[in-house]
Amino acid sequence: MSNIVVKEVSKSFDDAEVLHDINLEFKEGHIYGFVGRNGSGKSVLFKIMCGLYFPTTGSVVIDGVDIHKNNIFPNNMRVLIEKPNFLPNLTGLENLKLLASIQNKITEDDIIDILNKLNLKDDMNKLYHKYSLGMKQKLAIAQVLMEDPEIMIFDEPFNGIEEKTVKIIKNILLEEKKKKKIILIASHIKDDIEQLADIVYLMDDGKIKLSKNKK
Description:
Layout: E1 3-13, E2 16-27, E3 30-35, H1 42-49, E4 57-62, E5 65-66, E6 77-80, H2 92-100, H3 108-117, H4 133-145, E7 151-155, H5 163-178, E8 182-187, H6 190-196, E9 199-204, E10 207-213
Parallel strand pairs: 3-8, 3-9, 6-7, 7-8
Antiparallel strand pairs: 1-2, 1-4, 4-5, 9-10
């Protein structure tokens, strides 16, 4: 059973504290939403949770393992944080195939299937540097979903994506929740979070100001 425990996490850059004493627990089969203005600490918290930043104090324990003490990126986690970035002179499909080759868990057909679901199949053979913002976001979401990870983290996932595909992605995430996944989503658009999340956290000035359990 997957779970994440964030205990007394604070983070400072030089003399500026951007996270202050965050205590959270995430359990499988739930979607957790984070709402807050830009600069509220959402992205920094997510980067600490996936091992990209070390906390100044505190710990993140995933399935019983302190990821910072062990200096690991959890194998059962995939993330979209801030601007997606892929190799510009490869196609969308080639970029995903390259990433998938690291663990060899899925086939090219599996990749094409998720691209089709996200309305990106028609553009999968275009070079990445020719992608629009919405196409880049879809490719990044495909990267998160394609290997069926137990933990998924999305930071502002719907930027630039047309409404039709946003609805599809939301339905996919609700189906993923039924498969006992842990899903974290940050957005400055409250309606997106309200539609998806079981528990909503309001972040401001690096602190959890409010939590709302919807279900």
